[in-house]
Amino acid sequence: MNKRILTLNKLELGKSATIISLLSRDDARRRMLDLGMIKGATIKAIQKSPGGDPTAYFVCGTLIALRSEDAEKCIVETVQPLQT
To answer: 3-class SS at 74?
Structure first.
């Protein structure tokens, strides 16, 4: 399998990834942790708003919306099947 590390705002709709780390600090970091965005959690990009921002994500049994500027502070790892 081919692993790919990227920021959450780059995760394609319908794809899932594992959260590796958060780059945000202080209140913003606490908010993300409170939303269930903890290391090792699986997160899936569900839908973009009509204007393109924010994006809805499914994490820890909850649907949340994050602006792109917040999502880019979350580092995730996707796992994609090998190309044959």
So the answer is: strand
Question: Against a cut of 0.85, is the pTM above it?
Answer: yes
Judge whether 17 and 43 are in contact, CB under 8 Å: yes
> Domain of 10?
2-80
- Cis amide bond preceding 54, omega within 30: yes
The structural domain count of the chain equals 1
Q: Tell me the H-state helices in 1-84.
A: 26-34, 68-71
Average pLDDT by stretches of 10, the chain with 84 residues:
86 95 93 93 95 94 94 91 62
